[in-house]
Write a structure and sequence with these properties.
The chain has one domain: Gcn5-related N-acetyltransferase (GNAT) (Aminopeptidase). It is of the alpha+beta class. Helix content is about 35%, strand content about 25%.
Length: about 180
């Protein structure tokens, strides 16, 4: 089995999502905010989750060396959410994203983990820039992206989707400036 980078923050272990996360993924992708802001992935049972993890997550790790990471609280081993770098259909470049189970929102886990993932994008994976998409009404996500140093770039539409999304971007040069502050 191939091994991929794992990361740690003060409170979290940030490791590649794998087949040990089946039950967690079923729960996460069916939360109200996931369904509203990210979309229905039709992951309703163990078979669906296995297929989702193998075809969406593990295949991207094999192709690019990075992808979706499960966020595990160090103090008790509880899986609280995910963050990652995604090669999304319809987008040029790599997209940073994050999602938490509702009971772990507003505790700083999204910012803590996303800072680690953002830094890895440039320091470990040598990306030139990262992007992020969000719906116009997802103010919490927009605020977090701006805290991470991303700036609104333009409105976009993904293929076969009429909803206009906001696209945020952070270049490696701008990230380097953030690091020196």
């Amino acid at each position: 089995m191939l091994s991929y980078l794992e990361f740690q923050s003060e409170r979290l272990l940030i490791r590649p999502t794998n087949l040990e996360d089946i039950d967690f993924i079923i729960e996460l992708v069916n939360t109200p905010k996931w369904l509203k802001y990210i979309g229905n992935r039709c992951v309703l049972n163990e078979s669906d989750a296995t297929e989702y993890i193998q075809n969406k997550v593990i295949s991207q790790f094999k192709r690019l060396g990075y992808g979706n990471y499960t966020l595990i609280r160090k103090e008790d081993g509880v899986k609280v959410g995910s963050a990652g770098l995604y090669d999304r259909e319809g987008l040029t470049g790599v997209d940073i994203g994050f999602a938490l189970l509702p009971q772990y929102e507003k505790l700083g886990y999204a910012f803590e983990s996303s800072c680690i993932v953002r830094d890895a994008a440039f320091a470990n994976f040598n990306l030139d820039y990262i992007g992020a998409i969000t719906t116009k009404d997802n103010k919490d996500s927009q605020a977090l992206l701006e805290r991470l140093g991303l700036s609104f770039w333009k409105n976009i539409n993904l293929p076969n989707d009429d909803e206009e999304l906001q696209f945020f971007k952070l270049t490696k040069a701008d990230w380097a400036t953030i690091q020196t502050k």
